[in-house]
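Saturday, quiet lab. Running sequence design on the structure tokens for the scaffold JK sent over.
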């Protein structure tokens, strides 16, 4: 059969028809059918949001990154401590933050307690505890009530190390809160023995109960803490903490907590000073 056709009409080696032979039309062309061309990706997205725009819309529904919250916390914390005296609270105005998503990422069921009936405002305020200068975020609910929360609890996952190491100020607050009953007991003992008002060891002025402060003296609380850590081969940031409603933090390990209380009771010494004198001291 190949011999009946001239060589010029045969297929060439390159896969194209050789000169002299007309290619056969496609069946769709024979039937008069016109094939529709596929639109490009850009034309198909016309009138719809782009991938970057959709991603930005979804980001508003998620909680902010841990780094974002660290920057916001430092921003408002520095604004509080920059004034003299330091501000007790400041309103946090960050409209780009999804505070509800952040609060709902807190451990359950605490997240529902913090959210309550809804969010009206967010504040960075000093937490009411025995250790001064501890600031936390506070949510003001729609009914006017407030609740404190720690944003670091919302990032309790393998990608963050907030729970692996504790912050020094938080540990010191927990250690001081653990021995607070011992300080109150010393104050009550002096008041009972004297049957009168307490007396300042610095000025000798008689003090009412509410103006009398117990100070670690002559050995400071910091020295006691360092000695306790050395005795137990620990670093301050290795002491794990739990949230405490009264004092912000408490020591998580109950055995370590008992050791600290026993050590403090046997080693601590105190004196009574006034609240005004306490403001001039470097330590209490």
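Result came back. Writing it out in full:
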């Amino acid at each position: 059969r190949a011999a009946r056709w001239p060589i010029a009409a045969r297929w060439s080696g390159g896969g194209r028809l050789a000169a002299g032979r007309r290619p056969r039309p496609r069946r769709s062309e024979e039937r008069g059918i016109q094939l529709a061309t596929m639109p490009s990706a850009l034309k198909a997205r016309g009138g719809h949001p782009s991938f970057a725009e959709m991603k930005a819309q979804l980001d508003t529904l998620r909680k902010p990154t841990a780094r974002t919250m660290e920057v916001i916390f430092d921003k408002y914390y520095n604004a509080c401590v920059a004034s003299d005296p330091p501000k007790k609270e400041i309103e946090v105005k960050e409209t780009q933050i999804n505070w509800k998503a952040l609060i709902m990422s807190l451990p359950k069921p605490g997240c529902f307690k913090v959210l309550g009936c809804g969010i009206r405002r967010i504040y960075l305020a000093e937490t009411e505890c025995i250790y001064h200068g501890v600031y936390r975020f506070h949510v003001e609910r729609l009914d006017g009530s407030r609740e404190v929360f720690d944003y670091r609890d919302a990032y309790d996952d393998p990608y963050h190390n907030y729970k692996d190491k504790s912050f020094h100020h938080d540990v010191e607050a927990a250690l001081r809160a653990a021995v607070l009953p011992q300080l109150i007991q010393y104050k009550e003992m002096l008041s009972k023995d004297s049957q009168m008002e307490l007396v300042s060891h610095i000025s000798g002025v008689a003090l009412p109960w509410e103006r009398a402060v117990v100070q670690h003296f002559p050995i400071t609380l910091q020295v006691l803490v360092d000695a306790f850590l050395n005795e137990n081969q620990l670093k301050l940031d290795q002491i794990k903490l739990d949230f405490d409603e009264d004092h912000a933090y408490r020591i998580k390990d109950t055995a370590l907590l008992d050791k600290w209380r026993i050590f403090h009771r046997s080693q601590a010494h105190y004196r009574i000073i006034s609240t005004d004198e306490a403001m001039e001291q470097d330590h209490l």
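Notes for JK: The longest strand covers residues 119-126. Strands lie at 89-91, 119-126, 135-141, 146-149, 198-199, 206-207, 212-216, 241-244, 248-251, 270-274. Ask whether to fix the surface positions before the next round.
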